[in-house]
Amino acid sequence: MVSAEERAALPPELLGKYHCLVAALRKAGPGAVAFSGGVDSTLLLRAAWEAYGPDAQAMYVRSPLQKPRVLERVRLTCRQLECPLRIVEVDPLSWPEFAANSDLRCYHCKKKIYTYLTSLLASGYKLLDGTNLDDLEQDRPGLRAVRELHVQTPLVEAGLTKREVRLLCRAWRLDCWNLPSESCLATRVAAGVAITPELLRDVACGENFLEDKGFFGCRARLDGRSVFISLSQGDIERFLERGLREEVRNFFAKLNYTKVFLELSERPGILN
After folding, report:
1. Sign of the dihedral defined by the CA atoms of residues 135, 269, 74, 52, in that order
2. Residue 195 in contact with residue 93, Cβ under 8 Å?
3. 102-141 pLDDT, tens digit each
4. What is the pTM of this model?
5. CA distance 218 to 245
6. Which CATH fold topology does 185-262 show?
7. C-alpha to C-alpha distance for 77 and 138, rounded to whole angstroms
């Protein structure tokens, strides 16, 4: 639970939004959280635990689109929250409309996955999605599928922004509060380039390499021939100071990428 001091440190309006979130979940009846292990779905799972107690559930979709280390975090969070975890296996690469990597890739993927998850729910349960209010301002084709399937988005209904979600997770001492946003690996492959297991492997290897060097929240985007690296806010200067250019270039050369570009625009900070 949050201590009295931590509650006092939260803006009353924000604490009120959280209480409204829990109350709305309780009123709507039991639900299962589509749980990615990220900050949004973690807060939603925590609220579901408060609303439903032992009836709260987490459903994690394991596929080639996630780094293996994510599952470790998912399992740890569910143990901490004492929520049952159901791991659901899918293979989006077997779906031609996904592998073709068109502008509607995310829509097709979300539609198929959420349709499947909904079919697995126990009678009376609803599927809960961790979309926050800020997500509605971005170009997210997957949200179309969420709306079409009438999947509930409780964080949106409570009026919670990404920053507010992080603040609540920090107050609730959830380790994920400062995790960088982590979209699926397919988002790193240039539009129109067919998604293959090899490309996803190269993305994961490249980002793991950079993270091992201390560059968390990095992205390694591929077009099949070149690599485009983007770093989190403040990391470009540190990257250049450490003289990693040759080491990074040599690493990606071993993956058969001879051209490596560092993007000058940085990814936003955690609480920006």
Report:
1. negative
2. yes
3. 999 999 999 999 999 999 999 999 999 999 999 998 888 9
4. 0.92
5. 15
6. GMP Synthetase; Chain A, domain 3 (3.30.300)
7. 28
CATH class of 4-178: alpha beta
Residue 45's contacts (CB-CB under 8 Å, 6 or more residues apart) are 33, 35, 56, 58, 77, 78, 81, 83
Structure tokens at 176: 């994920």
* 196-237 pLDDT per residue, tens: 999 999 999 999 999 999 999 999 999 989 999 999 988 999
d(CA 144, CA 85): 26
Q: φ, ψ for residue 218 (rounded to 5)?
A: -70, 165
Please report, in angstroms and rounded to a whole number, the separation of the first and last CA atoms in the chain. Answer: 26
What does each C-alpha distance from 11 to 16, 17, 20, 70, 163 come to in angstroms? Answer: 9, 10, 14, 31, 13
Portions of the chain given CATH number 3.30.300:
185-262
